[in-house]
Design brief:
By secondary structure, this protein is an alpha/beta fold. The protein is built from nine helices and five strands; from the N terminus they run E-H-E-H-H-H-H-E-H-E-H-H-E-H. It has helices at residues 22-33, 40-50, 54-59, 74-84, 87-101, 114-118, 132-142, 149-165, 187-204; strands at residues 11-15, 36-39, 107-111, 124-129, 178-181. It has a five-stranded parallel sheet, with helices on both faces.
């Protein structure tokens, strides 16, 4: 299924590894330009948090599952990455994401395969990244005191390897994506750069 032929197409596709800042940037863009926002990682986190057969969980996913309080945990993130490597899980969630992307009024989606697989014809594609050490530090600061940094860094690297190495829809920038490295950027600087890109594209349209 393609994104072609939607009624009011304007999609911002944001991809990147965990803790690179893509969710923060996506929310800022959605708020600034009045676009709907979907954190597609929540879909996969919910599938992982539900447990059991991930394919069955993906097919039965409902709004209440996306409101769970444990979706931001490290365990949910690791389960999401494992589930996302299963083609049947990705297929079950793909149509929902594509419909959301092309809804009237436009949308911002952030995930790991939005610009490459879910909506390759998005008007704006951003790939947000940062070094594993920087991303692990960001994640570590969100966790309970006493969590070993080395453990978090190892999990970040493990997830990167799994996300980038999977056969189906591996994590990688789209050929026409703007790559934004946030390793040395404050969040307001990163958001400002992304805003410039979307503003320019809207003006060109």
């Amino acid at each position: 299924m393609s994104c072609t032929g939607a009624r009011a197409p304007f999609t911002v596709a944001i991809d990147g590894p965990a803790a690179a800042g893509k969710g923060t940037i996506a929310r800022a863009l959605a708020a600034r330009f009045g676009l709907a926002h979907l954190d597609t990682g929540l879909l996969y986190r919910a599938v992982g948090a539900i447990g059991g057969d991930p394919v069955a969980a993906a097919r039965a996913l409902g709004p209440a599952d996306l409101a769970r309080g444990d979706l931001r945990s490290l365990a949910a993130g690791q389960a999401a990455s494992r589930g996302a490597a299963i083609p049947e899980v990705r297929a079950a969630l793909a149509d929902f994401q594509r419909r959301f992307a092309r809804q009237p009024g436009g949308a911002v989606l952030d995930g790991r395969d939005i610009g490459t697989v879910i909506c390759p014809e998005a008007e704006v594609k951003l790939f947000i990244t940062a070094s594993p050490e920087v991303r692990a530090t960001r994640r570590w600061r969100e966790l309970p005191a006493g969590t070993p940094f080395e453990t978090v860094l190892a999990e970040v690297r493990e997830r990167d390897a799994r996300d980038m190495g999977r056969t189906d829809a591996p994590l990688r920038p789209a050929l026409d994506a703007l790559i934004l490295d946030t390793s040395t950027l404050a969040i307001d600087e990163a958001v400002a750069r992304a805003l410039e890109v979307v503003r320019a594209r809207l003006g060109a349209g």
